[in-house]
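Possible regression after last week's pipeline update?

I re-ran a chain I had predicted before the update to compare outputs. Posting the input and the new output here so someone can diff against the archived version. Not blocking, just want to make sure nothing changed silently.
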Amino acid sequence: MQSGILRPETVRLAVEGGRLSYEAQNRAAIDAYWADCKAANPRLWNGPFFMFEEVSVGGSVFSGRGRRTDFATFLHWRDHGRPPEAVHVTGTSLPVTADGALFAVRMAAHTANAGAVYFPAGSFDAEDIVDGSFDVTRNIAREMGEETGLIFDENMAEGAYTVVADRGAFHVARRSRLPSDFDACLDLMRRHQTRTGDDELETAIAVRAGGEGADLLKPYARLLADWHFENAAFSCSG
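New output (post-update):
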């Protein structure tokens, strides 16, 4: 799979029953690897997780079939070459502050992505399923709100999806405008963390045109940032 930006007209991500083939083929190795990861980082939690098969990017439609598995399976897949038997598909926010920065976050040291910098995001879970399909916008809004306290406002969001392909994964983004500048958004995030006790994020990073903050981003997030600043003007769906 080559890295790059896709702009599909439609995203269709169906929920499928049955076992993920990658999990079925590798369960013993997954469990052994999880035991090692847990010993190294006791705060890791092996919760429900969805990974995908039969992902297609043909024409104007981005589609795939997601099966329920667990975080241990994802971690094994991620850390063992990202084999093509499974695909990671997730939603990601792409928040633009009132002073023109992209609002990125750095993950805390105790997380599975310690120190990584990307835009507020999270993998699909059961709350994102609507009528047998994954609702990408619901996922983006939920994760952004849970992590930062910032609100995804549909009236301030671009109607189109932007999908970035990177190393066996697809990250489905929607841009949205935030009503405040970066410093005010960071202050809101810190107050949200104090109120909720959530310590998943270490801090927020301003990514600006001209390169400020961009070199810190994970590769897929850097692709999104570069694309955004090359196409910074966008109309909101509201």
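Follow-up from reviewer: compared with the archived run. The mean pLDDT is 95. Marking as no regression found.
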